[in-house]
UniProtKB/TrEMBL annotation:
Origin superkingdom: Bacteria
Organism taxonomic ancestry: Bacteria, Bacillati, Actinomycetota, Actinomycetes, Kitasatosporales
Keyword terms, alphabetized: Zinc
Name of the protein in its database record: GlcNAc-PI de-N-acetylase
GO molecular function terms noted in the UniProt entry: hydrolase activity, acting on carbon-nitrogen (but not peptide) bonds, in linear amides
One GO term (biological process): glycoside metabolic process
Native source organism of the sequence: Streptomyces glebosus
Length: 252
């Protein structure tokens, strides 16, 4: 049985590596088709170039950029609307087009909190992707976006409460952290064998390393600490209402 194809949808360049880099690398190693849609930053920007390198490391093809501006960095897509301010129907339609083009078995995106930091772009990406995963299978919605395709499942990248204390030394104690009760996690993925790829992809986002964002904090950690803190990924499974059996699972 072939490995299920995987399409990830995240807000910014580096989110794919931080949140699901291990799952992407693992599925690619198993021979699956993998790809990443990124909501913000435009072609020709330095972060789009860094994203291309990270995806090469993860085996996830070329960037698929929606072309919206980061909520906090207008220069990320000069002359373009901020993602959170774009018409919802337009943003959903752009994701639907990628879903129907790639035709994934499963999808991955941010959880309802937008992951640990709760960034507004992350939260909005969750909303847009949830709607797009459903709409992609309905022929009368977005008819110009391609033939209908329904992913079997959508996995939300998250963190359980129990994982937060160990991460506090990295992310700091002053920042808000969003996590879910442990019992809500439905897939715990050991990505230890792919940790070097995952970390290399994170560090490919050089501008984030240089400015001291999370990739920079990870860069400063010794290898054993990186593995201890980032060799597990957690997900919450969501099944679109239009999907019937059989079930397709994220590799765990």
């Amino acid at each position: 049985m072939s490995a299920p194809s995987l399409l990830a949808v995240f807000a910014h360049p580096d989110d794919e590596s931080l949140s699901a880099g291990g799952a992407l690398a693992r599925h690619a190693a198993d021979g699956a088709r993998t790809a990443v849609v990124t909501a913000t930053w435009a072609n020709g920007t330095h972060r789009a170039e860094e994203l291309a390198e990270a995806l090469r490391i993860l085996g996830a093809g070329k960037p698929r950029l929606l072309g919206y501006a980061d909520a906090r960095v207008p220069r990320s897509a000069p002359g373009c609307v901020r993602f959170c301010e774009a018409p919802l129907d337009e943003a959903v339609g752009r994701v639907v087009k990628h879903v129907r083009d790639f035709r994934p078995d499963i999808m991955v995106t941010h959880d309802a909190y937008g992951g640990l930091p709760g960034h507004p772009d992350h939260v909005h990406t969750h909303r847009v992707t949830m709607l797009a995963a459903q709409a992609a299978g309905l022929a009368q919605l977005y008819p110009d976006a391609g033939a209908p395709w329904q992913p079997r499942a959508l996995y939300l990248a998250t963190h359980p409460h129990s994982a937060v204390p160990a991460l506090r030394d990295v992310i700091g104690t002053r920042k808000a952290v969003y996590s879910v009760p442990d019992e809500q996690v439905t897939a715990t993925v050991d990505v230890g064998p792919w940790i070097e790829q995952k970390i290399a992809a994170v560090l490919a986002h050089r501008s984030e390393v240089e400015r001291g964002a999370l990739p920079g904090l990870i860069a400063a950690l010794p290898p054993d600490a990186r593995e201890r803190l980032f060799a597990t990924e957690w997900y919450i499974r969501h099944t679109p209402m239009t999907v019937a059996a059989p079930q397709t699972a994220l590799t765990v």
